[in-house]
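Weekly structure sync, notes
Attendees: PL (lead), two postdocs, one rotation student
Agenda item 3: pending single-chain targets
PL asked that the sequence for the first pending target be pasted directly into the notes so everyone works from the same version. It is reproduced below exactly as submitted, 266 residues in total.
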Amino acid sequence: MSRHRKKKHVDDHMDESWLIPYADLLTLLLALFIVLFAMSSVDAQKFQLLSKSFNEMFTGGTGLLNYKSPTPEGQIDTPIQRKKDQKKEKLQSEDLAAVKQKEEEKLALAKDQQELKALQIKVNTYIQKNNLSNKLQTSLTDEGLLVTIRDNVLFNSGSADVRDIDLKTANEIANLLVMDPPRNIIISGHTDNVPISNSQYDSNWELSVMRAVNFMKVILDNHKLDPRWFSAKGFGEFQPVASNNTTDGKSRNRRVEILILPRIGN
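Predicted structure, written out during the meeting:
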């Protein structure tokens, strides 16, 4: 009878110490799965932080769950987020490059305008020195530096040949066009609206073209000028600068123009 009671007493007080290592094992397994999950979405730097945390957990450190998160609280750095960040950085870099390019273009344009202004002063000095202000004029426009020469400075009425007495003036103008580096130059001929009445030219358009070409030939006798930078046009009576109803207006419309182009945008 006493033996039976003793066996029952032992069963009622079974040793439960096995629960402690069992709980530790479950904790370690949970920590392992958390680490594996975190490793799938972090980069190398964050992996090192997690490895350090994992190591401290086994060596008596603060433990994984108490270790400071490698990403800011409330933020999850996923591959998609990183791709968006990279795209944003690329756009910002492109915007900065575009702003820098525009600033460089503005500076280059300002420098180009200063060069054209200096050239205009040079031509105006020549005009004043030779008392040609009633025959030659200059203007600085968005298209470039425009030098206007009245036709009676270079040609006889109805003729496209530069007069011998005006060859010196033409050659001096050519010297003014010598630039380093060179610029594109357009020479254009213009007439009034009075119909041409000679056998050499059928229209004012033909007369204006030949005046531009012949004047350009005289200009290019200067070997310091490169023909590749020159071109000639004829507009006839179709681009007047004054009314053809007056004698003075017709005189102003009969002209040769030298357009010295900007380097920027050409």
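Discussion points:
- The mean pLDDT is 82.
- The chain has eight helices and five strands.
Action: rotation student to compare against the earlier draft before next sync.
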